[in-house]
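Need residues for this backbone.
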């Protein structure tokens, strides 16, 4: 699918108070702004019109815009984040969403974060994780079934979200971390497996024929170089310190 737009949000000065399990040290505000700007520039270089929203006071994780909405060509869905400190973020995304789609919402007791949602053409995979429960996953499955999407819930064995460990990189091919290599729901795809010591490299974004990849994973990079596709490496150190990756920084449509 070709994208024309992306919605991002600047990290705020309080971003280091966001949730994290990473032990990579204290993140640097100036550096995360530089990395965020490079990310936005990369999306723009691929032809996307990128909205950059302002930070939201009191919501230090709000720049992970992917988690609060799901956009398909047919519908927009406001999620219900499983992290209680992030639930209020949904009030600040609706006005930025494209108006051309009907709007649906995940309802209690469901929880769903966009990082758990992988859509490949008409196939919807939803990770059931610490953030997304089965009710939230099934609700999204039902919403998208109305538009012809097949749905499979997938238990998330490692990492924060499903897409921490898997991304769609080229026709019929997934890049997966070793934790998801045996996932039978993905058996219809070719699977490229990132080396065990480079698991975060599994989070990439395919944008209009180019692949955004995190810098610093030389073995995974070599695997991806065998694909006939331009690679755009981006420095993600400060975002990774907050448990984030490439996909979570934008909502693409
Ligand atoms: C959180 O723990 O919710 C944020 N610090 C990181 C969210 C990353 N989101 C994503 O990968 N989709």
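Answer:
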């Amino acid at each position: 699918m070709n994208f024309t737009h992306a919605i991002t949000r600047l990290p705020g000065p309080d971003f280091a108070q966001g949730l994290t399990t990473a032990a990579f040290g204290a993140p640097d505000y100036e550096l995360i702004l530089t990395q965020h700007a490079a990310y936005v520039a990369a999306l723009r270089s691929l032809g996307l019109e990128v909205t950059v929203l302002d930070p939201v006071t009191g919501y230090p994780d709000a720049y992970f815009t992917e988690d609060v909405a799901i956009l398909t060509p047919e519908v927009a869905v406001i999620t219900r984040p499983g992290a209680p400190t992030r639930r209020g973020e949904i009030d600040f995304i609706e006005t930025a969403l494209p108006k051309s789609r009907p709007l649906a919402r995940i309802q209690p007791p469901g929880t769903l974060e966009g990082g758990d949602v992988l859509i490949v053409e008409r196939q919807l995979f939803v990770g059931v994780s610490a953030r997304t429960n089965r009710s939230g996953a099934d609700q999204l499955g039902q919403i998208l079934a109305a538009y012809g999407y097949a749905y499979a819930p997938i238990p998330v064995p490692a990492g924060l979200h499903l897409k921490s460990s898997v991304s769609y990189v080229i026709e019929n091919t997934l890049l997966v971390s070793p934790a998801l290599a045996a996932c039978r729901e993905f058996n219809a795809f070719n699977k490229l497996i990132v080396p065990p010591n480079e698991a975060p490299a599994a989070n990439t974004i395919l944008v209009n024929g180019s692949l955004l990849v995190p810098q610093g994973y030389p073995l995974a990079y070599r695997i991806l170089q065998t694909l006939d596709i331009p690679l755009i490496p981006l420095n993600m150190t400060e975002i990774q310190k907050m448990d984030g990756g490439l996909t979570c920084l934008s909502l693409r449509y």
